[in-house]
Write a structure and sequence with these properties.
Transcription Regulator spoIIAA, 5 helices, 169 residues, alpha/beta, six-stranded mixed β-sheet, single chain, globular
Length: 169
């Protein structure tokens, strides 16, 4: 059963943590996903699996956050893999030029796994904005047309941040 607004659950086994995305993967659940993944990585996890079989949509912030987690794993010799992306997710990955960057495989869910909710913590506005910006900066590093499009997005985000930081006269 998919959840229209999106929920993320996790299961840890040894040094592997599996995140299961149900419904929509959006900017609203990106920071909780990132913080949870960072917690497991700090605790010694070296493999992150993102199960997308029940995911109906992923926005750019969510994908950029996944890329940020992958970059952390790459630096430490770990591995990030997408599991069984839905048809909708495969289409988004292809359109954004991420099919070659984010490896996918068709593994089954761990049998009799205990799933816990990542949660939907309310982040302070600065942390939320910082995650959105970092996610798009990661997308801007992609080669080709996809990266070029996100370079423009990061310029817009920087301009908006500069306008809100300047004191009003």
């Amino acid at each position: 059963m998919t959840i229209p607004h999106g929920a993320i659950r996790f299961h840890q086994q040894d040094q592997t943590v599996t995140f299961r995305v149900e419904g929509r993967g959006t900017m609203n659940n990106s920071l909780p996903l990132r913080r949870c993944a960072e917690h497991f990585l700090a605790g010694g996890a070296n493999q992150v699996r993102v199960d997308l079989r029940d995911c109906t949509y992923m926005d750019s912030t969510f994908l950029g956050t996944v890329l940020t987690i992958k970059k952390s794993l790459d630096r430490s010799g770990g591995l990030l893999v997408l599991i069984a992306p839905s048809t909708a997710c495969c289409r988004i990955l292809q359109q954004m030029g991420l099919s070659d960057v984010l490896p996918a495989q068709a593994d089954p869910l761990p049998p009799e796994a205990t799933w816990n909710d990542v949660g939907s913590e309310t982040a302070d506005p600065q942390s939320f904005k910082r995650n959105v910006t970092q996610a798009h900066e990661e997308l801007a590093r992609l080669p080709g047309q996809a990266g070029e499009q996100f370079k423009a997005v990061t310029r817009c985000l920087a301009d908006a941040a500069n306008k809100t930081e300047k004191p009003r006269e």
